[in-house]
């Protein structure tokens, strides 16, 4: 791998990790376009490293909320919509990540066998349909009880965690897509669903990346450290600004817009790569 490839993959990871388009799917498709085998040990290790860069970015965006969850400070101030002075706590986070972690731990080898282009293309379409439906349901049928992050109930946190399992079993479905859409189906507002999705990404991605790194750390040799470092930095910088822009423009960028992008991407790859 060279520095140009490292930069390209770092950009792709940073752009796609936290928006509902599937970073895993994009990495599989991009490595195929670049002529690499994404299942080689070095490439898998590189993907873990640049994912850690994206995790660091989201942790920096949500550092105040993280400190609040740990009891080291308090966020400002509670919404007037929270008369009981509820707050998001660590149990919410645990319920949001536990189902996916349990499934990933026991079905790790089976899940890895699903990582190929055709599976990703189907997942891009299926995930897009799921997102369009959730947005319609949230607008027309759901009773919104959690307008902001601190309004989230334990039941809603668990439901989001259960929806997240879809993305664990189906590469290309999108972790953020399944959790944001799942939150909207559970009576959580679009913004609060996105906030919770980004927040629970930190522990679940740290667990997943850390576990994978234990298997592949031996490939972090001096020969590749420079290339890996560049990818890590690029992923961190891009992911940081992507999350800031997404949360600022969240009311203008609907899930349907991401769904349409997914359909177009799947169609292009099907036409020009698979045939």
Automatic annotation (TrEMBL):
Main location: membrane
Alphabetical list of InterPro entries matching this protein: UppP
Keywords: Antibiotic resistance, Cell membrane, Cell shape, Cell wall biogenesis/degradation, Hydrolase, Membrane, Peptidoglycan synthesis, Transmembrane, Transmembrane helix
Known EC number: 3.6.1.27
Pfam families from the UniProt entry: BacA
NCBIfam families named in the record: PRK00281.1-4 (NF001390), undec_PP_bacA (TIGR00753)
Record's miscellaneous remark: Bacitracin is thought to be involved in the inhibition of peptidoglycan synthesis by sequestering undecaprenyl diphosphate, thereby reducing the pool of lipid carrier available.
Protein's recorded name: Undecaprenyl-diphosphatase
Organism: Paenibacillus campinasensis
UniProt lineage: Bacteria, Bacillati, Bacillota, Bacilli, Bacillales
Gene this protein is translated from: uppP
